[in-house]
Amino acid sequence: MIQRIQTVWLLAATVTLLGLFVFPYVSFIDLVGLGKKIFITGTYSSLNNESVRESSTFALAFYAGVVAILPVVIVFFYKNRKRQIVFIFVEMLLIALLGFWMYSSADTVLNLITQKIRPGNIGVGFFLLPLAIIFLSMAIGGIRKDEKLIKSANRLR
Known about the structure:
The chain has helices at about 5-20, 60-75, 80-110, 125-155; strands at about 25-30, 35-40, 40-45, 50-55. By secondary structure, the protein is an alpha+beta fold. A four-stranded antiparallel beta sheet has the order 1-2-3-4. Helix 3 (about 80-110) packs antiparallel against helix 4 (about 125-155).
């Protein structure tokens, strides 16, 4: 289980998705001139070099936590490779839904101050989602290689 390369890719996807709790996915300056950042856990503003939470998004944080932990759960399906692949595709769909939810929540916050999401506003958090999908795709490649290896070993018997 641990010695398989897809385990490494699945754990890399988990670490990447847990990075959503560390890095903001949108940064902007409001109408007053305060710097604000939108994290998975809520909107934060900077006052006197201290981060102050303005609003909380518990549902988004909970969903992101579930999506982040799911690749670790997928690792334990190592005896059923087809089920692993199905769950990885489900995980990719869940990541896409998370990205849409993140975009719509950021758009809602920015619309309150008549701003739009621009390339200059996008933070590291938005780039973690495609990176996690790439890691999951690489895990699928590793699972398929294992499947080929097992089929060729069965032919030799």
